[in-house]
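#structure-requests
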Amino acid sequence: MAIMKKLHSTQEKLLKLLKRNITEPLTIRELQGELCLSSPSIVYHHIQQLEKKGYLRRNPINPKDYQILADSPDKKITYLNLYGLAHCGPNGSILDGDPIDRIPISSRILGFSSHEAFMVKAKGDSMLPKINDSDLVIARKTNDAESGDIVVCVNNGEILIKKIQRGRKEIILVSLNVTYEPFVASDDFKVEGIVRGVLSYLTWLKSLLKGSLMDKKLSKKTISDLVKKFTDKKENYFRDNYNETMQEMIF
């Protein structure tokens, strides 16, 4: 294990603040107030020092997007930025907009560095049967993709999840649901990342209920109440429980 460089007392406090507020990152001004520092530039200096010493990695485009790299060895959970599919960021990229949430996930299931990962929430049924509406899709950041890859991309100002097919002069975007016709990518087409996994609401619920019925641990009324809770507030309920039940990687 690499020996981390010693931190200044202010940097220790800053790192604790960043960890404590990882789901809702504070602004530089807010950090300045919490640390009782005289100017934002001092906060920025200490953030740079945390980067240099290997405790922190930031997205240069979006200052609220960062990964805590150094932590206690027993913590195996990383937080990934979750972006919606409705809008791009100010520069036409999903990654330069503010994430709508930070989702905890086991680091070991990624298979690649967590700082290269992000998540989007699937919308609609065009990628059935592999991706359901409201599934959480894990992608690895890249602007390059080969024909046949399923990608998160910008196309005509929208964020889409599609399979790409490269032709001689054009790129075709294909849905897995055959009821949707393929179409040619627009001039602003850009790959944001390659899909590497899916946290599936539907599969998680089926697995949970199947196991409960087989083990006879839950009554029919309890299962009915569970389904209602899942249907009414499925995102929060799923996020709070999926690490204890199932994480399904399908790509």
